[in-house]
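seq as requested:
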Amino acid sequence: MPKFEGTSDRSNLQDALEKAVQKALSSITHPDALIAYSVQKIGGRAGGVAGFQQVSVIIDAKQTEKQNMITVTGKLERVAAIGGETTGWAIQMDSETKIKDKIVKSIEVNHDTKKFENLANERVQAKGRVAFRNTIERGEWPILEVSTIREIKSK
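struct tokens:
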């Protein structure tokens, strides 16, 4: 895993960390890139005739999966689950899609529930990022974190 170093000459640990993270982000070419990082070493120098007040942070960083943006079309419906392990809303998609090696016909959605109320039981097109929740009863399951949703005319 690549290492990235950030240094502050004012003994500002946050500034040093931000510089290391920025270097890691700059090493990735994808415009919507995400990184996962962990701090490997913190060090510094202080005092002396020169009056050092330096702190350095070294991180390991790697690019994580892309944002997994998708667009789905289907009927927006209320859903319920025992134990409350649901977002309360799902889109019954017009066609199956593959998410993380599973074929799904519906996907739960997470967004502004007032907007969902106005679109209940309507055919919609929703765009967003696929995220995953992991709960005791259901295990891991996908949700669509909706960025835009709109009603569309029925087929």
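The chain is about 15% helix and 55% strand.
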